[in-house]
Amino acid sequence: MKKRALFAGALAVPAAAGIWAAGIEPHLFAIRRHTLPILPAGAEPMRVLHVSDLHLAPWQKHRAAWVKALTRLEPDLVVNTGDNLSADIVPEVIDVFDGLLDVPGVFVLGSNDFFSPQAKNPAKYLRSPSEVKHRVEPDLDVKALVRGFEPDSERPGARGWHLLDNAEVSLTIRGTRIDLCGLGDAHIDRDRIRFDEDSGVAEAELEYPRFAAEAGLKVGVTHAPYSRTLEAFASAGADLIMTGHTHGGQIRVPFWGAPVTNCDLDRTRARGVFGYRKSTVEISAGLGFSPFSPVRFACRPEVSLLTLVPRS
Fold first, then answer.
1. What is the pTM of this model?
2. HEC profile for the chain?
3. Which of the residues 13, 98, 139, 279 could staple to 234 if both were Cys, CB 3.0 to 4.6 A apart?
4. What CATH number has the domain spanning 2-310?
5. pLDDT digits (tens, 9 = 90+) for 217-260
6. What is the pLDDT of residues 282-312, one digit of tens each?
């Protein structure tokens, strides 16, 4: 009888964990808050909402409603670091962000804004980053997604966000000039890092990403935090680097952390804020998951709310 009880208990623990990871925690949305002293002296504080990895599917009404309500946070700037889709439902995704498109913002694209998720062996994910390079032509309507997010070029001051895939923009928020420079998703080799090979110096001079010296705040934005993208932004003098992609590990081991990051970044840096050279990196664990891996454990779905304040 005692052996049966122990056996039943041994089965109950993983079963309960599975129910929690698949049916409960994916709905426990959180706002991760950070205060970062990176603004120039005397600058007015500002609030930056970072949204990443929505991975919206048609049936995920609860997630859509929670994100639509984020307008209540009244951010001064919105940064969306990609992977908005899990199916070709661009109108639904645009509707989710409709209220936030009235706020100044920028966005980059992730692999799942181009390509729909595919079934994979979960064991491969634990060994190395996932691969989508064998697909060339997007099967998702990424052009419609970009049109829905971007301002209308024919109407000055129109609502919408600026696309930063290998592009840059300057915005003035609460009196501070912010230079934002982006790179395409390094996970599918869409980043375009350029160096001056004819500079004649021992260490090549960086051409892109780049920031103007007069900017009060320099922000690098990309989907996946591969080491080459962090290095490029840091070399260019970014004060802040914002990324997503990792899902925070998605399934974390309590008191130990993420087993993987789905890129070449160390597993201990799967989410949160940390220093990288003279830059500050903020990685969002994001809101969703692939429909073929519909679980989160010890890693609640999240957005980040960054309060930027002057340096001491």
1. 0.91
2. CHHHHHHHHHHHHHHHHHHHHHHHHHHCCEEEEEEEEEECCCCCCEEEEEECCCCECCCCHHHHHHHHHHHHHCCCEEEECCCCECCCCHHHHHHHCCHHHHCCEEECCCHHHHCCCCCCCHHHHHHCCCCCCCCCCCCCCHHHHHHHHCCCCCCCCCCCEEECCCCEEEEEECCEEEEEEECCCHHHCCCCCEEECCCCCCCCEEEECCCCCCCCEEEEECCCCCHHHHHHHHHHCCCEEEECCCHHHCECECCCECCCCCCCCCHHHCCEEEEECCEEEEECCCCCCCCCCCCCECCCCEEEEEEEEECC
3. 279
4. 3.60.21.10
5. 999 999 999 999 999 999 999 999 999 999 999 999 999 999 99
6. 999 999 998 888 999 999 999 999 999 999 8
